[in-house]
Amino acid sequence: MKINRTQLLLFVAMVVIAAVYRAFDRPPGFAPQIAIALFGGIFFKNRAFSLLAPIASLLISDLLYHLLYISGKSAIPGFYQGQWINYILLTSVVFVGMLFRQKNWKSYIAAGIAGPTFYFLISNLQVWLSGGGFGFSRTFSGLIANYTVALPFYYNSLLATFFFGAILIGVYYASLQRQKVYQSQ
After folding, report:
1. In whole angstroms, what separates CA 79 from the centre of its chain?
2. Angle made by CA atoms 114, 116, 120, in degrees to the nearest 5
3. What is the distance between the terminal CA atoms of the chain, rounded to a whole angstrom?
4. pLDDT of 142-154, one tens digit each?
5. Alpha helix locations (H) across 23-104?
6. What are the residues whose beta carbons fall under 8 Å from the beta carbon of 146, sequence distance 6 or more?
7. Which tens digits make up the pLDDT trace of 56-113?
8. Are residues 96 and 41 in contact, defined by beta-carbon separation less than 8 angstroms?
9. Contact 159/30 with Cβ under 8 angstroms?
10. Residue 42, Cβ neighbours under 10 Å: how many?
11. Which of 6, 25, 60, 179 has its C-alpha lying 20 to 30 A from 16's C-alpha?
């Protein structure tokens, strides 16, 4: 996708709106960043731009979280030890999106399942390995218990990815249609 000025402004606005949305009260795991990462991987030919979009959105929301935490309006800190792993995982989801570059609904659905699943499996494995989170033992049964407790986050992540992904894809195709109308005049 060649980026024109209108598409760039729309996408920057969506990244900022997504960041602000993530920083406020919402169901756990229901955030747009995985959809943004997949969208960037699928639609943007410029790899730097596709990687920058979800990272910028996550960074802005983490800054907002931190400001709310400092002001006493949130119990969740914006910055914490080990947070860099979330940035690496989100960046990895962009590459997952690159595996689904065919522009059809089957590919979009497959990406919508693959992205959150990849993120869920790797992030919860990392939590379990670090002994953080729910504090399950480092045994196979502890790993399974860790994944089981995190299933509501996964479910919400899947829903969010399809919800926000549909918005991003809809805006993308509407932008293409608008561009065709202006070019034909």
Report:
1. 18
2. 115
3. 22
4. 899 999 999 999 9
5. 33-43, 47-70, 84-98
6. 124, 127, 128, 133, 134, 136
7. 888 888 888 888 889 988 887 888 887 888 899 999 999 999 999 988 999 999 999 9
8. yes
9. yes
10. 26
11. 179
Number of residues written out for the chain: 185
- Contacts of residue 104, defined as CB under 8 A and 6 or more positions apart, other chains included, come to none
Query: At which residue do the structure tokens 């497959």 appear?
Result: 110
Return the closest-CA partner of residue 127 out of 95, 170, 83: 83
Q: Which residue has the tokens 């999106």?
A: 97
Tokens of 126: 């990392």
Measured over the CA atoms of residue 25, residue 160, residue 125 and residue 98, the dihedral's sign is negative
Amino acid letter for position 132: G
Q: Which residues are CB-neighbours of 169 under 8 A, at least 6 positions away?
A: 39, 108
The contacts of residue 118 (CB under 8 Å, 6+ apart) are 92, 93, 96
